[in-house]
Specification:
It is built from eight helices and no strands. The longest helix is centred in the C-terminal third of the chain and has 64 residues.
């Protein structure tokens, strides 16, 4: 009677990583190429719509159109990159359908992330430069804030405390005997205090007396001239503040717009990866 040999060897399936880098990097490269392509087309249209002879769209209209095109460019590129990453990924047998869908979605998301890093590298000479630029920007903002506070304090003092010295030795009524340079310097230090607040009534009256003493004007005419100068200064300060506030708001809107565009682009890449994986398994 022959013995029967039973093979009890357990066959272990080969190890498979959770992400296929080939399709992911391929989708990322395609997304970058589509971004560059659409960016070139948008730049061409934008330059064609401008003319040195006038009849150009307003700045607001041009900005809105550019923002819409950037959205379209980012979203279309995200779709192509995510779809290819999911469609080109090899299908797995014996894996639950939910797990397959998750990995296809993850492939699209990772392809979007890789394409984003590639674009940062193209635009900002690498992610390191982008981060360095953010650091320099933060340092510049902090330095500007500190410098602005120091400038405000210096203006309040009239330049190295010279304004306070002027008030210490100020006569009750100027006689016009000081040199023109001295008179201009003292008047400038008084007007400098109006850049961070309001010119006080004693300073205002003293400026009127200085103008009247040096020009021979009547006090009423000198008052009008001083008031006109103060009004011009306050208008210039107000315009500078408005320009700074408009720049701050524009930077904030740009940051929010960019973040929203990237968020939607990531979602589109994920959905496209899932769609590509589903079509891959259907054939």
């Amino acid at each position: 009677m022959s013995e029967r040999i039973i093979d009890t060897t357990v066959v272990v399936p080969p190890y498979r990583t959770g992400i296929a880098w080939g399709p992911v990097l391929g989708g990322a490269v395609v997304a970058v190429a589509v971004t560059v392509l659409l960016g070139a087309i948008g730049s061409g249209w934008g330059l064609a719509s401008l003319s040195v002879y006038g009849d150009n769209p307003s700045a607001t209209t041009f900005t809105v159109i550019a923002a819409i095109w950037l959205l379209i460019m980012h979203w279309v590129a995200s779709f192509f990159g995510g779809y290819l990453a999911g469609r080109l990924r090899a299908g797995w047998g014996g894996v639950h359908g939910d797990e397959v869908m998750f990995r296809d979605t993850a492939a699209g998301f990772v392809a979007w992330a890789a394409a984003t890093l590639f674009i940062i590298g193209l635009v900002g000479s690498g992610a390191g430069s982008a981060l360095s630029g953010l650091g320099h920007a933060a340092s510049a903002i902090a330095g500007s804030a500190a410098g602005g506070a120091a400038h405000a304090a210096q203006a309040e003092m009239g330049g190295d405390g010279a304004y306070m010295v002027d008030t210490l030795f100020r006569s009750t009524a100027p006689d016009g005997k000081e040199t023109p340079a001295e008179a201009r310097a003292e008047a400038g230090r008084i007007l400098a205090t109006g850049a961070v607040g309001e010119i006080s009534k004693p300073d205002h009256d003293y400026l009127v007396q200085m103008v009247a003493a040096r020009t021979g004007m009547e006090p009423a005419e000198a008052t009008k001239r001083v008031d006109a100068m103060i009004a011009t200064e306050q208008e210039a300060v107000a315009k500078a503040k408005q320009a700074a506030d408009a720049a701050r708001k524009a930077a904030g809107r740009l940051a929010l717009f960019t973040g929203f565009s990237m968020l939607v682009g990531a979602f589109i890449a994920c959905v496209a990866g899932a769609v590509g994986g589903r079509q891959r398994d259907a054939y």
